[in-house]
Task: structure prediction
Amino acid sequence: MTRFAAKSTKVTSDVDKLGETYALGHADRIAYAYKAAKGLTEGVVRELSSQKNEPKWMLGYRLQALVRYLSMGMPLWGGNIGEIKFDDIHYYLKPAVKSARSWEDVPKEIKQTFEKIGVPQAEKKMLAGVTGQFDSEKIYGSLKAALAQKGVVFLSMDEGLREYPEIVKQYFGTIVPMGDNKLAALNSAVWSGGSFVYVPPGVEVGLPLQAYFRINSQNAGQFERTLIVAEAGSKVHYVEGCSAPAYSSGSLHSAVVEIIIKPGAQVQYTTVQNWYRNVYNLVTKRARVEEEGQMRWIDGNLGSKLTMKYPSCFLVGRKARGETLSIAMAGAGQHQDAGAKMIHLAPETTSQIISKSISKAGGRASYRGLVQINKGAHHSRSKVVCDALILDEHSRSDTYPTNRILENQVILEHEATVSKIGEEQLFYLMSRGLEEHAAEAMIVNGFLEPVMKQIPLEYAVEMNRLVELEMEGSVG
Amino acid sequence: MSSLRLANLTVSVAGRTVLSDVSFSIKPGEIVALMGPNGSGKSSLANTIMGHPAYQVVKGKASLGRKNLLSLSPDARAQAGMFLAFQYPVGITGVNVRQMLLAALRARGLKFTALGLKQKVEREARALGIKPELLTRDLNEGFSGGEKKKMEILQLRLLEPQVAILDDSGLDIDALKTVAANAKDAAKRQKMAVLVITHYQRLLNYLKPDRVLVLKDGKLVDQGGMELVKRLEQHGYKIYD
Result:
């Protein structure tokens, strides 16, 4: 119910009709060259691996992970994942087109999809390289010549495995082992696509590397796998933006991201996740940070039905630093269970977690975080700030912070605030002539502003726009 | 320019009557002062006219020209030409006065560029003696009482309403003079109807209102000219007991 004068609002609860109001809700017709039967068996994994012409060790890895997956239990915490019908998922889809390097080579149908999500425009302006993930295979990728000359590698994970098998073999599964959790095991068994980034020692990639991920086919599971290796003294910013078209039944996205940061290297990983409202987004993201290295996760979660994601940093070298800026927005029927983990394993390591969550129209936003400072990680510092904004009485916000401090000489700060959107603030802005939803959007964007300042301008603009779209769709 | 008319306005908040049978009108270019002790219902009247959802109109009418204000949401009232300078303006984190004004002006269908507005806001701020750094800070957050009042007047000057309600201008002499000077100027030059709410006689010495209304226990108990202000100064509101 709107609190101010009556207005007509349209509420669509039928998921089939949601696509009409969802800006990116369009399922394009694409021919698939190979579509695995529903459900997961050893045969599916073998078929997938042979389709990709993978080395034997990767098939072995996948089969071993499948055994782990089948023997592990589902997480019993977080959101409700009991409704996922794992047997109804296609575990591998391969579109009937080859990867293309130039825009001209990209088929028209696929081009249209990219145009709808603005990939070429973004590239024209300032992006160093663009790869778009279309279902399970990368269709389109480009990398500026200058980067290639510096030895920077930016490929799909499948290409990475083909072209740089020794680097992949050295690091794959070392940061997120296959047995880490049931969904990581599932990804390890059936991963497809994702990005492989390698930055040689001392090389700074000045502009962000960007990948857009999309799930296109109904019931297509997406299990991309990303590996980023930043050699000593290097610097890179990787951007992952997600948008999925409309579906009529639940879809699963379960990615694994592994980042290796060598001494003095700096990596920033920015995600703007806007999956459609029936997607389960269950992701394991982790970085290992060596001496004086820096990792920064910027994690924006606006879409999906349920997100469970806690980007982590293992601070293994002296003076390593980890940061997570987490933004979550939960609307009707959504549960954002997001946060961060910071594990201090070396002296003088520092970490910071800033979480801003918004819940509205019956949505639920949970912050779940861990700060662990192990014995020996003396003179470490960590700061956690969690701010939650609740827009109406139907919505919910929870905070689940865990601190495990096993060393004495450390500093840990924790601040948390929960505020309800003030009727007085709304009234004030409306008395100046702003409509209720515009006033709400202004208050919400103001609440997010300290975090937006930290995000590169064009992504901040995109986030602002998405927040405004969310607010317009708000039932108040 | 239109007149503000209130007829037999009776208002309750959470079941408690805060205004009873209040009737008066203000013509374009007229300055009317509404006085009364603390808790007499002055701010309730301002909030009701602007459409605060907590104030339930039990009976009566409020109109601007031919428009029935009571059927409009606060934003529609603002767009119809109403403005309320708040007694205690709330802080809005992450939003500065320029962002707010740009949205407010564009909501009225006016074409303003961010740069054009910036220049105009800076000009007005100079005229009002507002420190430039306040223009880029979070609105009303950590502002002094006087700074908040001046910021409300800045908004008044940019939004150019037909009726301005200035709710209690506080004790800051500098801000008080600014409020009075602007109210007089707006009434005279723009034919704005101005309702000034205060319980400090001092403001009225600067303002010289055309009429003075006295509100007590939610009822209008007296009206007159400046002589009424002098009488209240000498004897206080107890003369209405």
About this structure: The first strand of chain B starts at residue 4 and ends at 13. Chain B is about 40% helix and 25% strand.
